[in-house]
Design a protein that fits this description.
With 352 residues, the protein is α/β, with parallel strands linked by helices. It has a single domain, classed as TIM Barrel (Alpha-Beta Barrel), CATH 3.20.20. Helices cover 37% and strands 18% of the residues. Helix 4 crosses helix 5 and helix 10 packs across helix 12. The longest helix has 25 residues. It is globular. The chain binds iron/sulfur cluster. The site of iron/sulfur cluster (SF4) has 12 residues, from helix 11.
Length: 352
C-alpha cells in the first residue's frame, strides 16, 4: 500500500513587520491552540502515526517568525517542542529581513532548543524582483547560515525561497519589456541559487475564492503558471514521471490548524492553502474522521470531474481528485482546467 504522509501546519504566528508584494497571509487572528486543543491535536498525530500515516512535516507560520508578536510564546513553548518531536522535520517561516545580527543568534539558540534532535527546513518569502540580485540572495543565505551555526543539535534539510507568482511583474526599462516569465524560468537553473530552492505560489489562493474578482484573478494566474511550468520543463528538459504528478513523497495530506478549526487539503496544485469550508474537517479529529472527510471529498470530486467539460475525457482525473484540484475548481465555479499537470501531459511517463 502506498504511504500517506502527513504535513501539518500550525497557523499560529501573528503580526509581521514586512509588506512583501502581494502577501495575502492573515497577519492577525491566528489563534494559539488552547490546552484542550493541543491535547486533541497530539492524540490525532499519535493516532495517525500508529495507523500508517507517518507525521513528516510540521510547518509553523504563516507570518515571519522573527517579527511576529507572539514569537517568544511559540519559540519558548514546551507544548510546541513536544508537538514538533512527533514530526520528522519542522518548517519555519522566516523572511531573514531583520537587520540585527544578534536577533539571528537568538533565533538560532531558540530553534536549537525547540527542535533538538530533529530536522529543520526554512521557508522564505521572496520577492521575484530580487531574482537576479546575487548580493541580496547572498545576504539571505549568510543570515540563514548564522542561525544554523547556533543550531548544532538540529539537522538542516532544505531552504525554500517562495515567490508569489501573482505579485511578480518585473520590467526591463532598457528594453521596454516585461521579463517576468523569463526570469521566473531561471528558477529552474540550479546554478543560480546553489543550495536555495525556489518555488512559486499563487498567493490569492488564501482569499475568498467564491468572490468573483478573486476567482477570476486566481484562474487567470493559475493558467499562466501552468504555461510557465510547462515551458520551463520544455526548456530545461525535466523529465516528468507520474510519481511526480502524484507528488514526490507518496500521497500527502496537508492538515491545517487555523483559528480553532482543522482543514484537510489533499495537496492542491503546488500545495496551496485555502480555508474554504469545503476543506474544513467537520468530522471528529481522529483518523476515522479524517478518512471519512477525505473519502467524501474524493466522491464529490469524481462526480464533478466526470461531468466537467475539460475533465470528463482526461486521463488525470484520479490525480487531480487526489490533489483536491476539482474541489478548488468547484469553489472557483469553473470547468476550465487549472492543473499544471495538463500542459505537460504529453511528457508524462506512466511508470507506476
Ligand atoms: S488535468 Fe485538468 S482537465 Fe485533467 S482532470 Fe485535472 S483539472 Fe481536469
Amino acid at each position: 500500500m502506498q504511504t500517506t504522509l502527513i504535513d501539518f501546519t500550525l497557523e499560529i504566528t501573528n503580526g509581521c513587520q514586512f509588506n512583501c508584494t502581494g502577501c495575502n497571509v492573515d497577519k492577525e487572528g491566528n489563534s494559539y491552540p488552547s490546552e484542550e486543543e493541543f491535547d486533541r491535536l497530539e492524540l490525532l498525530v499519535d493516532e495517525l502515526n500508529n495507523n500508517g500515516f507517518p507525521a513528516m512535516n510540521l510547518a509553523i507560520g504563516p507570518t515571519d517568525i522573527m517579527t511576529s508578536f507572539n514569537k517568544d510564546k511559540i519559540l519558548l513553548s514546551e507544548r510546541i517542542k513536544f508537538f514538533s518531536q512527533k514530526f520528522m522535520k519542522t518548517a519555519i517561516n522566516c523572511a531573514f529581513l531583520d537587520p540585527f545580527e544578534e536577533n539571528y543568534i537568538k533565533l538560532g539558540k531558540q530553534l536549537n532548543w525547540l527542535l533538538a534532535g530533529k530536522m529543520v527546513k526554512f521557508v522564505i518569502p521572496f520577492e521575484a524582483f530580487h531574482i537576479d540580485n546575487a548580493t541580496y540572495i547572498n545576504k539571505i543565505r549568510r543570515r540563514r547560515d548564522l542561525v544554523l551555526s547556533y543550531m548544532p543539535d538540529v539537522l538542516h534539510t532544505k531552504t525554500y525561497l517562495i515567490i508569489n507568482y501573482e505579485a511578480s511583474i518585473i520590467y526591463d526599462r532598457e528594453f521596454n519589456k516585461n521579463i517576468t516569465e523569463e526570469l521566473i524560468l531561471k528558477m529552474y537553473d540550479e546554478k543560480l541559487f546553489g543550495d536555495l530552492h525556489l518555488d512559486l505560489i499563487l498567493g490569492s489562493s488564501r482569499t475568498n475564492l467564491r468572490e468573483q474578482l478573486n476567482s477570476e484573478k486566481f484562474i487567470q494566474s493559475a493558467k499562466k503558471l501552468k504555461t510557465v511550468k510547462a515551458s520551463a520543463r520544455e526548456k530545461y528538459g525535466i523529465k516528468v514521471d507520474i510519481a511526480e504528478i502524484k507528488n514526490s513523497e507518496g500521497r500527502d495530506w496537508d492538515i491545517f490548524y487555523k483559528g480553532g478549526k482543522l482543514y484537510l487539503m489533499p495537496f492542491i496544485l503546488e500545495g496551496l492553502a485555502n480555508f474554504d469550508e469545503v476543506f474544513e474537517v467537520k468530522t471528529d479529529w481522529t483518523v476515522e474522521g479524517l478518512y471519512n472527510s477525505y473519502n467524501q471529498s474524493l466522491i464529490d470530486q469524481y462526480d464533478f470531474a466526470y461531468n466537467a467539460r475539460e475533465c470528463k475525457n482526461c486521463q488525470l482525473i484520479a490525480q487531480c481528485s487526489e490533489r483536491g484540484v476539482h474541489s478548488l475548481m468547484q469553489i472557483l465555479n469553473t470547468e476550465d482546467c487549472i492543473s499544471p499537470a495538463k500542459d505537460i501531459e504529453h511528457n508524462i511517463s506512466w511508470t507506476l
